[in-house]
Amino acid sequence: MEQRILIDMIKLRSAMVENPDMSLPEALFYPEANSNGLKSIRELATFRFTCRRCEDAPCISVCPAEALEKDNEGLINRHTNLCVSCKSCVTICPFGTMMTDFFKHHRNRDLFYDLKDDNELKKFISNCPEGTVSLTENDESPQDNVYRLNDKVLIKEYLYTTEKQ
Ligand code: SF4
Ligand code: SF4
């Protein structure tokens, strides 16, 4: 059975709180060639699962580089090749959606692992804080806070929702 990569964003955040100076390894997985600069799975997951999708998104208005826009699903997309790492968007976001380390390393290829390559995948798992990334044969499982980011990647995260649970 095909294995998926499970990235536990809840544990990753705790690991970063315990060790704020840590440089987290970043994973890339592009179904197709990317012309938009390096962007990590962690960033894609954050904009998909924790961003509140503000109607008049202040992060977009404040960006001096026009690096943020909404895609046709309403998800924020950062053009990492335009971003100048000023972090104005981090400061203005009322919900603390973005982790500041997104902006430290996005041009440093050495910290990025291509999950399509088995060797890089193994290195990525072993370099991430223990228990934060694993391989699984399971599919998404909302009752366990596990959601599909794409066919290969599952994300464990508490979803933002306005619906009553
Ligand atoms: S950090 Fe990048 S995306 Fe955020 S406001 Fe600055 S230039 Fe725009
Ligand atoms: S301000 Fe924050 S929560 Fe609102 S759209 Fe931007 S990143 Fe998402």
Order of helices and strands: EHEHHEEHEHEEE
Second-tier CATH architecture:
2-Layer Sandwich
Number of helices: 5
Mean pLDDT: 83
Give the uncertain stretches in residue-range form: 31-35
Overview of the structural elements:
- By secondary structure, this protein is of the alpha/beta class.
- The protein has one domain (4-19, 30-156): Alpha-Beta Plaits, CATH 3.30.70.20.
- The protein has five helices and eight strands; from the N terminus they run E-H-E-H-H-E-E-H-E-H-E-E-E.
- It has a four-stranded mixed β-sheet. Strands 2-5 form a two-stranded parallel ribbon.
- 24% of the residues are buried.
- Mean pLDDT is 83; it is low at 31-35.
- The chain binds iron/sulfur cluster (SF4) (2 copies).
- One iron/sulfur cluster binds next to helix 4.
State the main characteristics.
single chain; 165 residues; alpha/beta; Alpha-Beta Plaits; four-stranded mixed β-sheet; two-stranded parallel sheet; 5 helices; binds iron/sulfur cluster
